[in-house]
Amino acid sequence: TAPRTVLLTGAAGGLGTLMRGLLPAYGYDLRLFDLVPVEGAPEAITADLNDREALREAVRGVDAVVHLAGISLESTFDKILRANVQGTHHLYEAAREEGVRRIVAASSNHVIGHTPRPAPGDPPIALDAPRRPDTFYGLSKCFGEDLAQLYWDRHGLETVSVRIGSCFPEPTSVRMLSVWMSPGDGARLFHAALTAEDVGHTVVYGSSANTRLWWDLAPARALGYRPLDDSEPYAAKLIAEQGELAPDNPAHARVGGHFATDPPIWPH
Ligand code: NAI
Ligand code: 15L
After folding, report:
1. Which residues form the NAD-dependent epimerase/dehydratase domain (predicted)?
2. Which of 78, 154, 157, 178 could bond 212 through an S-S bridge, CB–CB 3.0 to 4.6 Å?
3. Which residues are catalytic?
């Protein structure tokens, strides 16, 4: 049976705010969770992923979890470790203890962020391309994918790990023309990930059907995802403002964009 009650972690964040607007139309009854209060939702649970008691209570009785909470950009190793590694482990433990069947987890394109950006005409990046994180942040998402595999193999807890490109209302850079996922397509993909049968642990790339797409959307389509958007209508304006991606610009050379070239954040 399709999941009805879904815990949305990270509900106060950018993507969480978009998804708590869009997912109820698919019939989900959302329970909200975040470290900080969720605007306009006094019923939301305000707690840290490292508060195991709060987390266990939060997952009790839900059919599935959409796990978006965590640090969403590069940070110090210690902060990433606490929020994304330990925090995600606590979520999986709580879900296992309470018998939750499925987690849809926000992975990221930054698990392959150091991969050279495909040039126009190159084949799309395959799902089995070697993982090459560009940051500790990307590395924490690699951990999340492996954690999901472990909990499927050992405990039968299902996960769809979505390697999200850039999910924002509109693309704002030339790179985003390739990796953008419209909010509407994001909701369509999360819905597919919540309802597809027999997912075990499935990893997919998540984006719209962009003309300039860099990776293979077939794994997401196999879940039943049918993207309706393409960033191309934004291309002319963005390219006029910013220019095409330049082969000699290191910040344009890799899938992760500037994540792959920004200096480390200290303490490293
Ligand atoms: P965001 O930074 O706007 O939201 C993250 C939310 O998680 C925040 O509301 C924050 O308070 C909460 N959070 C952080 N640490 C927490 C903790 N220890 N306990 C409880 N809550 C905590 O990020 P955004 O853009 O909404 O991303 C959501 C998720 O999707 C993140 O996991 C991010 O890594 C992932 N993602 C997002 C992409 C995007 O395009 N927005 C692209 C790829 C991945
Ligand atoms: C991510 O993983 C980040 O969470 C998001 O803020 C964007 O930077 C996105 O990747 C991206 O690659 O554009």
Report:
1. 6-167
2. 178
3. 137
Task: Report the residue among 109, 231, 262 best suited for mutation to probe ligand 2: largest number of ligand atoms under 8 A from its CB.
Answer: 109
pLDDT in tens, 142-168: 999 999 999 999 999 999 999 999 999
Q: Dmax of the chain from CA atoms? A: 53
70 touches ligand 1 (CB under 6 Å): yes
Does CATH place domain 5-260 in 1.10.3290.10?
A: no
Residue 221's identity, in one-letter code, is: R
Report the atom number in ligand 1 closest to the C-alpha of 166.
40
Q: Which two structure tokens, joined as six digits, stand for 134?
A: 């560009």
Summarize pLDDT for 233-246 with one digit per residue, the tens: 999 999 999 999 99
Ligand closest to CA 104: 1
User: Which residues approach ligand 2 with their CB closer than 6 A?
Assistant: 72-73, 108-110, 166, 179
* CA of 220 relative to ligand 2 center, distance in Å: 19
ipTM of the complex as predicted: 0.99
- Between CA 209 and CA 258 the distance in angstroms is 23
Name the one residue in this structure whose structure tokens are 């006029």. 240
- Closest ligand 2 atom to Cα of 175: 13
Pair 11, 44: CB distance under 8 Å? yes
